[in-house]
TrEMBL record:
The chain crosses the membrane at residues 27-47, 94-116, 171-191, 198-218, 254-272, 279-302, 342-363, 384-402. InterPro entries: C_nuclsd_transpt, CNT_C_dom, CNT_N_dom, Gate_dom. It comes from the Bacteria. Residues 198-400 form the Concentrative nucleoside transporter C-terminal domain. Belongs to the concentrative nucleoside transporter (CNT) (TC 2.A.41) family. GO terms for molecular function: nucleoside transmembrane transporter activity; symporter activity. This is NupC family nucleoside transporter. It is found in: Cell membrane. Keywords: Cell membrane, Membrane, Transmembrane, Transmembrane helix. One of its GO terms (cellular component) is plasma membrane.
Amino acid sequence: MDILFGIIAIALVLAIAFMMSNDRKNINYIGIGVMLLFQLATTAFFFNTSIGQSIIKAISNMFNKLIEFGQEGVSFVTGGIAREAMTDGSSASVFFLDVLLIIIFFATLLSVLTYLRILPIIIKYIGAFISKITGLPKVESFNAVNSMFFGQSEALLAIKSQFHHLSENRLYIVSASAMGSVSASIVGAYLGMLPEQYVLVAIPLNMFSALIIASMIAPVKVKAEEDRVDIKNVSGANSFFEAMGNGALDGGRIALIVAAMLIAFIASLNLVNAIIQSIFAGLTLQTILGYILAPIAFLMGVPGDELIQAGSLMGTKIVTNEFVAMLELQSMVQDATLSDKTIGIISVFLTSFANFSSIGIIAGTVQGIDSKKGAQVSRFGMKLLVGATLGSILSATIAGLFL
């Protein structure tokens, strides 16, 4: 029965994307079918085979080792002072130190690998492979892969030399890819809050889901001369150590931005809840969102007695950001209030940038590259969020089929 509901959910998501399409005659159904099959095969391989699970474990161990290296740097700078002031001898966790500051080390690694031209070449050829098997243009495919490694702004800036070729439909696809994926620089932070197997599988799932939904909503066909990818000088650094410095500064900025947004969103959420509870005792915004999104969670495969909690987490992610929802999910995981299946489905749903604040980030980045195209992104901002959310639902539903 769960498989039947999952198929219904996938069909419903695709039907909504079809209804939202601005050029239904030119939808590339073959490419969409290929990506769906790839998602199903990938998820089955990683969740249901011993080889796949071993690969996930190996990747997870690599990330955990990198996190340990990052924690050594954080501990050198802040460890003793923070621990003494906060704890009574126990090893308490400080979110800013143990999760957010790890972003600095990951951002440094990405910057160095970019300077050495290792990542750009990998991304270019993976993007070319995706373009070949799906029929999507190279720029859109490259940007989708690039978005798995870099943040929304950085991914879009990497293709700024191609922006003059982008029609409104192509602009929608690259923006949707940036919103539907996550940055590798913050994967370490995610792994500090959620089970690693779900986060790591969610990254390619959400990349393909973003492309599937976006290419249905905004189908594209391009001329050969308008379909090229330029990866020259993508680093911007003139030396290895400058690349390290740039990465560290970028990572520090990201960590501070996330910390500031968490303070603002969590404080605002508590303010809204206080207002709601002064009128309706015991009611919260999360509960309201939980009831609204419970039907979607049901189709995604969440057990009946956990629908409100799952819907609440989904809604919290959309109206605030994924970190706020992940922190709530983390506490539920620690309290053992959710089943493994629900944890897996919701973890996959949360592992993307699909939320209201991303509209402003993407529109602002594009505005800095091309003011006219920035205005276009602002106009279809809500359509972008709906499409990215549909992509998250699609990924989570596919994950639920194999859990």
